[in-house]
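**Entry details**
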Amino acid sequence: MVKLRTLVQAGFVALTLYGVFFVGANAERWCPFGGVEAIYTYATEGNLLCSLGVSNFYVMAAVLISVLLFRRAFCGYVCPIGAISEWVRKLGLSLGLKRRRIHRGPDAALSLLKYPVLAVILFFTWRTSELVFRGYDPCYALLGRHGEDITFWAYVISGAILLLSLAISVPFCRWLCPLAAVLNPFSRFGATRIVRDAATCTDCGKCAKVCPMAIPVDTAPAVTHARCTTCLDCVDACPSRKGVTSLTLRMPGSSGGGLRRAAVVAGLLLVLAASVSAAYLAPLPSFVWSRGEMPADTESVDLMIDGLACRGSANRLVYFLTREDDISIEGPIRVEAWPGPGFVRAVITWEAGATDPATVKAAIVEPCWDEVTERWREADFTIEGYDPLSFD
C-alpha cells in the first residue's frame, strides 16, 4: 500500500511539473527560498529580483509556521528535490545497493556545509541583485524549463546528488540545502516531536535504521533534532506490543494515542493554502520607487500596463516617468507596481496639481529622446483602455 506521505510528495512534484511545462507558470514565485533571496533587496530598494514575487514571502512565512508546528515537515512532504532523492534511494534498494551509513562525526561535520552554502548564495545574490543560485540549483535543473539560465554545473550537481542518493539517504537535504540552513534554527523550537516510551521499547533499533535524516531515534527519549522532517517512518517501523507502539508524535505535555500522519498533512496543506490565498487576496507591490517626499495632498492613477514584466522593465517605466521634455512630471512621484506577464497593475502617485492622468499616460507610452545615447527610446508599454491618438 502506498503511504500517504508518498502520495503527497508525488502530488506536489506533479503539480510543479504541470505548472512549469503545461501552464508555463513561473514556479520560482512560489519557492520559499526565493523569499530569503529577495528580502534584502525588497527591504532596501523596494523591489524584487527578476522572476520572484511577494508570493515568495507569503510561502516562506507559511513554511516557517509549519516548521514551528511540525519541524521540517515541508522538506519531507512538499519539497520536490527531497522527494526525488528519496525515490532514487528506493531505486537503489531495488537494485540491491546497500545503504551507506555515515558515522555521526563525519555526518555532523558535513551537515554544517549548508551554512556556508547559504552565506555564499545570499552574499552574491544581494551583491549582484541576480538569482545566482538558479544556475546551480538542482531542483531548478531537474524540474525547470532548460535554458541559458541553467549552467553546466547545475547538471553536474544534480547528477552527483542522484548518484549519491542511490546509496545515501537524502544527501542534499542533510548536508547542502540552503533552505534547510534557514529552517533549522526555527525547527529546534518545533512544537511536535517523536516521543519514545522506554518502558515498551525493545531496543531493536529499527526506527534509527529507517530514518532518512540519520537521527538516532532509538537512543533519544524525544526527537528534538532540527533536521527531523516528521516523516514518521520511524513510527511505522516500530514493532507494536498489543497494538501499542513505543514511538508516537506528540505535542509537549499531551497524552493519548498521539498525532497521525494525516494531521501533519492537513496542517501543511492548510498553511500553504492560506499563503497562496493571501498572495492573491492581499498582493503587495513587488516594485516600489519614489522621488522626493510625498506631500499630504496627492493624486494618483491606477493603470493596467502590458510590458511591465520584471524589475528591469519597471525601472524602464520609471525612466519614462522621469523624462525631461514637454510631458515631464514635476515634483515628487511614487510608483507601485506588480510586474508579471500580460497586463499588470501599476499605481502612479504625484503631488496634487503637478500633473494629470493624461500626461502620466502619455509619459509612459510616448518615445523619449535619450540625451546620453542621442537616440529615441521606445517605451514598449501598452495601457489598457488608453489610445495615445485619442489625446485623452
